[in-house]
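All the exercises in this workshop are built on plain-text protein records. An example says more than a description, so a record of this kind follows:
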Amino acid sequence: MANRRLDYLDAQELAASILNITESDDTDNTDAVEDALAKKFEISAETFQEIAEELFNRIDVGISPLTNEAYIGFVNKERNMFFVKEDISSQFIGLVVQWSTEGEKLEPGKGFQKEITDMDGNVEFIITIKKPKAE
């Protein structure tokens, strides 16, 4: 995955979330975030942004060839492997179902198909989701 930039405002929002600083509609919380980062972690907002961006660029999702489980975590790009990971198989399946059905609720015995196309609009895959009939 290509390096992604984390802009200053996104880094500020992330820091505010980590530090439990809420933003009101009429005030800028930049000073509160900078003060809290200095107090809690002894770093500047710029240093936080650099660290967050480095971490952000190491987050990836993948399927384990050994267990066939879906994971999200931090990836060692040189070795093409996770070094910190979390199993997200259930969430992944739920997302595929939601994406495939476009959020529509499936009734028992009913199905839904989603076509995946290439850049030229040619169908490469068809995903079929069907909820079994109740026994």
The chain has a mean pLDDT of 90.
